[in-house]
Design goal:
The structure is a homodimer.
Chain A (H helix, E strand, L loop, with lengths): L7 E2 L5 E5 L2 E7 L10 E7 L4 E6 L4 E8 L2 E5 L2 E5 L4 E4 L5 E4 L6 E8 L9 E2 L6 H4 L8
Antiparallel strand pairs in A: 2-3, 3-4, 4-11, 5-10, 5-12, 6-9, 6-11, 7-8, 7-10
């Protein structure tokens, strides 16, 4: 079925990829459905791994946990969130997701607007104050 | 905590409501977080109930099933989708969600842009061709 007329996304239609930190299963992106506004990816981060501090300069983001537990940072605030809990990341705000648990962490990352200008992502994990913010906490790579 | 600085939404922060067809738990709306682009609500539809054919004239929508099974329509196409499966609804396209199973259906409804003009929803379930489209299928109210 051509993407333009696709209305359902199951295991057969989603587009899988790997980032250095996670398995990414894209449900809503222009190579899956004819989206205009929304992006959605299901992300699996293994124990001891993380998506370190970064920003999306031109997109707002929701992270909704499906299973496992996330040490989730938004700005200088962090919480451990589990299934059915959410983090909200305003456009451009620094955030990071660390799996310090013993189970895989699975969450939905939802972003808008889909047509925002580049860059999609800026890594700030080597910059102050973010580089020192998790000092003393379990190391994730 | 004031909404402007809220970054995490759990059972304590979400805003619950009831529509005629469902329990709605709002995770991303202007009375929960300082959103600019995204809306998200977790919806529970009991067996035998439905959100009958309708449109969102000015918003794109994703429906992502968390548990249970949905007889999901988008335009004249329908599929039964379950946990981890998604429907994509382009802006203005007719869609409907029917729970013909014996278990509650729980899904995330994600919409953008949040600041779209009214109306948020137009019911077309009494209009042709939609009124006759489920003829012979289990009745949901």
């Amino acid at each position: 079925m051509p993407i333009e007329t696709r209305r359902f996304v199951t295991d057969s239609e989603k587009v899988n990829g790997r980032s250095p930190w996670a398995l990414e299963e894209w449900f809503c992106r222009s190579d899956v459905v004819p989206n205009q506004d929304l992006l959605m990816v299901r992300v699996t981060i293994e124990p001891g791994r993380c998506h370190a501090f970064h920003t999306h300069p031109n997109r707002e983001e929701i992270l909704y946990v499906l299973s496992g537990r996330a040490e989730q940072w938004v700005g200088r605030e962090h919480r451990t969130i589990g299934s059915g809990e959410m983090a909200f990341v305003p456009k451009g705000e620094v955030h990071g997701t660390y799996n310090v648990s013993k189970e895989p962490l699975v969450f939905l990352a939802i972003l808008a607007p889909s047509g925002a200008p580049e860059p999609a992502l800026v890594d700030v994990s080597k910059q102050e104050p973010w580089v020192g913010l998790r000092k003393g906490m379990p190391i994730c790579t």
